[in-house]
Amino acid sequence: PTAPAVPMPSPHSAGCPFGPPPAYTEAAATGPITRADLAGGESCWLATGYAEVRTILSDRRFSADARHPAFPFLLPGRREIVAANPTFLRLDDPEHARLRRMVTGDFLVKKVAALRPDIQRIVDEALDTMTEGRTTADLVAEFALPVPSLVICLLLGVPYEDRARFQGLSRTLLNNASTVEEVGAASDELRDYLTELAALKRERPEDDIISRLAARDDLTAREVAATGVLLLVAGHETTANMIALSTALLVDQPEQVAKLADPELVPGAVEELMRILSIVDNGLPRVATEDVELGGVLIRAGEGVIALISTANRDEAVFGGPGQRPVDEVDLGRDARRHMAFGFGVHQCLGQPLARAELQIALATLFRRLPGLRLAVPREELAFRTESLIFGMRSLPVAW
Question: Which domain holds residue 330?
Fold first, then answer.
């Protein structure tokens, strides 16, 4: 390709914060496969097209094993930390399948359906607290973050009173500006915390994921802790940011919000929000284990590639069509089911049934109970977490 390499990670546009960083959109316009320069000085391939991203995430010739020397890391110094304690997200089968299978049952659709009354109660209680005697609040601190944090604590068996600790450590781990030392220290502290918790659960088991993992003879203490860290961090950070971003995106669009009042339209609306926001917007890394021709380019064995789901999810050929809004605009009536916000293939997000349930309940309840919801500051003053590996909001001042 003759197009210049794309610097990664690239910043969001202040004028259009909900879209992918402009550098990624421009790269997508040049062709489905291009080059990227990573912050550590390495370079790799960048896939921006829907078909190419789907192939990379589902073809066994692309490895998710972070211990591979050519595995692409966005930031310098992260390789050693991740490779020392890989979660199943960063392993290939059979290791990936062995570890993932141990927690799959806790996130099945049927299991999550039984949790919906608990999620509804948590959402209602958060809104009761947020609205009591007041007409303004920071939606991130008082709703978007507490709801998924409480839910994942309930599932894992993590004491909710420890939330300030694990939320702070999660932010450090996901912050592009964190030093290698800070990331290493946060990773160690979170792993030690889960290791201690697992030891307690082994002595006094309860009906939760950590208790079940701790009771297994075929898992090391390090594997239990690594799985716990992955589920704890991913289980609250992603959904919290989706709730806040979705609210900020919709709050000035009453014709879209109206669709959330119809229970039959809510599931589809949430799929569209995940498509257009695609909060893991710096992509999913892989490394080729064989030569693969893709998008007119030969990717050689041992070369890294990043699958950019944020641009793939705005592919006009897949999500456009007559009578629909342009793919860069939110349309809660759009059929967005083929989006890849949860990834694709064997590594796609384990917790997607839970995330869907939380988003459906949280957003429908929020806009039903607060029909006058509006921003409490000018839109240009909204503070986004542009430095995070998972795009989101620092705060969201709202009024009703």
Answer: 6-399
pTM of the shown model: 0.95
Task: Strands of 86-235 (E only): list them.
Answer: 136-138
**What 3-state DSSP class applies to 205?**
coil
Dump strand ranges (E) for the chain. Answer: 6-8, 33-38, 43-47, 62-63, 136-138, 284-288, 292-294, 297-299, 304-307, 374-375, 397-399
Distance between CA atoms of residues 281 and 279, nearest Å: 5
What total number of domains does the chain contain? 1
Torsion region of 295: left, alpha or beta (phi above 0 gives left; psi -120 to 50 gives alpha): left
pLDDT tens digits, 363-383? 999 999 999 999 999 999 999
Reduced to 3 DSSP states, what percent helix, strand and coil does the chain have, rounded to the nearest 5? 50, 10, 35
Kindly report the CA angle at 140 between 397 and 138, in degrees rounded to 5? 30
The model's pLDDT over 232-291, given as tens digits with 9 standing for 90+, comes to 999 899 999 999 999 999 999 999 999 999 999 999 999 999 999 999 989 999 999 999
Write out the two tokens for 254. Answer: 């009453």
Within a domain: residue 126?
Answer: yes
CATH number of the domain that residue 164 is part of? 1.10.630.10
Is 386 within the bounds of a domain?
yes
Residue 318 lies in a domain: yes
